[in-house]
Amino acid sequence: MTTHGPADFAGQHITVAGLGVSGISAARALAGLGAHVTVVDGGDGDKQRAAARELAEQGITVRLGDGETLPEGTGLVVTSPGWKPDSPLFAAAAAAGVDVVGDVEIAWRLRETSGQPAAAWLGVTGTNGKTTTVRMLASILAAEGLRTLAVGNIGTPIIDVVLGQGKDGEPPYDVLAVELSSYQLHWAPSLRAHSAAVLNLAPDHLDWHGSLQAYAADKGRIYEGNTVACVYNAADKATEDLVREADVEEGCRAIGFTLGTPGPSQLGVVDGILVDRAFVENRQQQAQELAEVSDIAPGSGTPAPHNIANALAAAALARAFGVRPAAVRDGLRAFHPDAHRIQHIAELDGVTYIDDSKATNTHAAEASLAAYEHIVWIAGGLAKGATFDELVQKSAARLRGAVLIGADRALIREALARHAPDVPVVDLDRTDTGAMPEAVREATRLAEPGDTVLLAPACASMDMFVNYNKRGDAFAEAVGELTARDH
What are the distances in angstroms from CA 107 to CA 18, 138, 185, 387? Predict the structure, then answer.
């Protein structure tokens, strides 16, 4: 494989597409390596202008209001993840014979340029659960005493981390836990991880990829060139198929994870114990206990099945890197989930209130609904082209009631009418942020002791809220109002 380094970028004319976090990070890094950088963005608002002024101080040219025209003399385009492959800018680049890559690709090319051993990458992708798994993995690696960091799509620009290597005479990290979106993988042709996992596959971002097949293919890129382990979900055949199709290094193994009893070369669960039958001396006859299910986010109640699966995937990647069983246990115990991901808010009069505002698609909502026995479901928002029949069919027996909010709530209401006609439904005809307190009050009215009021919208939030975090905050505040008023 070709070795890339800073000299490849010095003097080059590079166009960066997008003024988001990764675009700004890439522009600054490349300018610092001596490239002539122009950033283009179709927006021209206050936020973009403020970012442009900061970049201009570093000698970076910014063109606002035109994200379609390729700047003259461009030798490489570095795109932000959200830009679609059919963007006019990229069509112009292809016509000019100019490569288009992403920030992850640039980071990968730079990783061995510090003169010091580069940190290994353990990659994680999937439709849902990426951030939780990556943070679990980083916690496990840290418990082993390794210098590590959760990076990538999780929010820490990976270029910044890679360029930090070797500044003080030795690399600050031994191994990186890298969250990778399908967008990032699409634009990272050279990436070759130590080991990687695809957690699950369900239709998502099809407007960007064009088809489920193209989306899956981009997810599968994470396995290309793996050296030790390709970790897949034994309950999701599509992920195993991606392993079969991958071109990996000789000796790389397929490692499955399952919520049931593991077979050889799998991790699974036996009598409430996370068990490894992959990274043991005699996997045909031996198994290694790693942790108890109760070690996963201790103190937050019984973990949802999908979080047990996330923990198994994280454990598999850690074990592939040589981490001891005790560190898996200690790392899982030390891990605390992010807000708005199956977050316990309160228990009032025997009713539990759970915030899973991060469940922004049907696949995530299905996993959330499967975690509780009797549910009053708060759902709705922007459907992003999704349909809800399968979700409602699978979850109908658990539903005590449903409260619907948001622009596309009618789609969910119609699915409930078809597949759960006996479930009482409250349809709140409003899309303002004040709808959430009313939704929580209505859900409380429908709930009985032992029930769970679950915010798992199965939709994006932007019709009512800035993001899913604000939606979750509104839910928590509304529950708090119940507490203040009634208790």
Answer: 17, 19, 12, 37
pLDDT in tens, 388-412: 999 999 999 999 999 999 999 999 9
How many Cβ atoms from other residues are within 10 Å of residue 17's Cβ?
25
Q: What is the largest CA-CA distance in the chain?
A: 68
Alpha-carbon distance of 185 to 198, in angstroms, equals: 12
Q: Bridge partners of 254?
A: 230
pLDDT at 338: 72
For residues 219 and 213, what is the distance between their CA atoms, to the nearest angstrom? 10
CB atoms within 10 A of CB 116: 15
Residue 374 structure tokens: 């009797």
Dihedral over Cα of 310, 400, 436, 386: its sign? positive
Pairing of strands 13-17, 76-79: parallel
Dump the DSSP string for 331-356: HHHH--PPTTSSEEEEEETTEEEEE-
Per residue in 373-382, pLDDT (tens digit) is 899 999 999 9
Output the pTM of the full model. Answer: 0.77
CA distance 291 to 275: 8
* Beta-bridge partners for 460: 382
Backbone angles phi, psi at 63, to 5 degrees: -115, 115
H-only helix segments in 325-376:
325-334, 362-369
